[in-house]
Amino acid sequence: MSDDGADAADEADETDAAPPTDRHYAEWLDALADGDGFALVCPEGHGSLPPRRVCPECGAADLSREPLDETGTVATYSVVHVPSPRFADDAPYATAVADFGPTRLTGIVRDGGADDEAPEVEIGDTIAVDVGERATDGERLVVFRPAGGR
Amino acid sequence: MTDVRVAGVGLTPFGSHSERTGRDLFGEAALRAFEDAAVDRADVEELNYGNFMGALAEHQGHQAPLMAEAAGVRCPATRYESACASAGVAVREAVRTVAAGDADVVLAGGMERMTNLPTDEVTEGLAIAADDLFEVRAGVTFPGAYALMANAYFDAYGGSREDLAHIASKNHENALPNEYAQYRREVSVAEAMDAPPVAEPLHLYDACPITDGASALVLVSEEYAAEHDLDASVAVTGTGQGTDRMALGDREHLARTPAADDAADAAYADAGVEAADVDVAEVHDCFTIAEVLALESLGLFEPGEGISAAREGLTTADGDLPVNLSGGLKAKGHPVGATGGSQIAELTRLLRGDHPNSEHVPEAEVGVAHNAGGTVASAVVHVLEVAG
Ligand SMILES: [Zn+2]
Which of B18, B13, B108 is nearest to B371 (CA)? Predict the structure, then answer.
């Protein structure tokens, strides 16, 4: 069902606010924000993120949208003190890579409350995924929230 | 297939040349390479030039013809871009071209200007070697990506910041006599431990500096070297390259670099050598943890054992397997698009016996150079041997 890959978004509303250079990412973020985060999964079970025409592992073209796990597990993390300009007002912040079933996601870990400090993170922590805003310029980004347990 | 000889090598001093143009830097490196090689530049049949961020740093695209002018050669010239492995892939294609008999003389190398940009813009420029959508937008910086790998490594195999500090200290000590090195200054383990954090667990002395510089190599066929009675005693006997998924999170293992495994396997097979034959190595230590990952991919240490190699004195100048006798990217500097060429220049000098650190490897016959791009989504490995 390649329609669920890159083609579906090609048919999306042309007036979509997202710039055309990353509309597939914007659409994926929209889904994530709605609690409908997904990965594209091939018949072999390889997960990847859009836009994809084929599975990057095996080349299969019939990719389907599969929901991400409700919660993820931190696979690794780092607290970044020296940011790029687009994250100037966000630093220090904790970036993490987390397993979410069909795929891994990379995002910034934030506590439920204050968004202005890097929370304590450890490998193995359970986290949920959300969409937040960059403090520096309001751009949307993938955010992980502690979901209890490690 | 013909043997590929290194006829000459040329480097600029690595450091801050913020008011010099890229063409001037590459011109200087090429001039030194031709002086070292005693090869007529009219014989050059191709220029393979590596550069990563010239469009950002100098507002200059299409750099290859400009660099051909700067080097005083008139031949097909191509720019290669593979992030921090840009010169590595440029050299690899030069090696393949000569080995295949398609050219007798190729000029290869690279150049990067970085210090003319403010630090935050360099951080941004380097970050774009990662996946823009799923990494850069999630706050992954270049040091941050290697920090992710470092924590994954510690979790998988153990190790500590102090182990990494020993790598920094070793490479700074190696740079002391190297006239091309950016930081010819000792850094103690304690000093490295006390430095401010960049992306935890990596601190200031775990990271390579921001560097301007250029490298150039004159590579020739064995037949050309013989005909022209060249003093070209070092041969590039093996080349290999590997590619992995762009985003770190998409890799099978967050604390290993399979692209470099593949590059090493191919280069060793090409040369007909094994990891156990390697006497000296120049590896891509853009961050201290990167040296660990490189040593393990090269098969010089088992996974989980590279972390303690410097602390145990195995990879120091007086160890069994000296690593980064040039000072490495860490202390010698990392002008990203020039680095892959500079590693081979340093290794050539080490094997020829005219490097200030050659005294540490007087019997060395086999050297290996490891150059990586991004978080090792790209890797290039070359084997150099004393050919007599
Ligand atoms: Zn697949």
Answer: B108
CA distance linking residue A111 with residue A97, whole number of Å: 16
Find tokens 């970085």 and name the residue: B114
Its ipTM equals: 0.94
Token digits of residue B192: 């490295």
B17 secondary structure, DSSP code:
-
- Residue B168 identity (one-letter amino acid): A
Query: Taking residues A87-100, what's their average pLDDT?
Result: 95
Total-model pTM: 0.95
Residue B26, classified by CB atoms within 10 Å of its CB into exposed (0-12), middle (13-18) or buried (19+), is: buried
Inform me whether the C-beta atom of residue A4 falls under 8 Å from chain B C-beta atoms. Answer: no
Contact B346, B361 (CB under 8 A): no
- Could you confirm whether B334 is annotated as catalytic? yes
Determine which one of B166, B172, B203, B334 is catalytic.
B334
Q: How far apart are CA A127 and CA A112, in angstroms?
A: 11
Q: Where are the alpha helices (DSSP H) in chain A?
A: 6-10, 23-33
Q: What gap in Å lies between CA A115 and CA B51, rounded to an integer?
A: 38
User: Residues of B at the A interface (Cβ-Cβ below 8 Å)?
Assistant: 119-121, 123-124, 127, 133-141, 143-144, 147-152, 155, 196-202, 245, 247-250, 254
> Which residues in chain A have their CB less than 8 angstroms from residue B202's CB?
78
Q: Which DSSP state fits B20?
A: S
**Beta carbons within 10 angstroms of residue B121's beta carbon:** 16
Which amino acid, B242? G
Contact B202, B330 (CB under 8 A): no
Please calculate the CA angle A135-A38-A113 and round it to the nearest 5 degrees. 30
Helix (H, G, I), strand (E, B) or coil at A15: coil
Which stretches of B53-103 are assigned E, i.e. beta strand? 77-80
Cα–Cα distance measured from residue B75 to residue B205, given in angstroms and rounded to the nearest whole number: 42
Helix axes B142-157, B288-297, angle to 10 degrees: 60
Closest approach of A72 to chain B, Cα-based (Å): 13
Q: Judge contact between B337 and B56, C-beta under 8 A.
A: no
Rg (CA), chain A: 16
What span, in angstroms and rounded, lies between the C-alpha atoms of B155 and B74?
A: 53
| The pair of three-digit structure tokens given for residue B346, joined into one six-digit string | 């340093």
As a whole number, mean pLDDT of residues A83-100 equals: 94
- Chain B closest-CA separation from residue A136 CA (Å): 11
Nearest CB among B123, B198, B248 relative to A84 is that of B123
Residue ranges of chain B with per-residue pLDDT less than 70:
1, 388
A79 contact residues in B (CB cutoff 8 A) = 197, 199-200
Mean of pLDDT values over A19-31:
84
The runs of H, that is alpha helices, within B74-198 are: 86-99, 119-127, 142-157, 161-175, 189-194
Q: Give the contacts of A11 (CB within 8 A, at least 6 positions apart).
A: none
Strand order of the β-sheet with A64-67 is A47-48, A38-41, A64-67
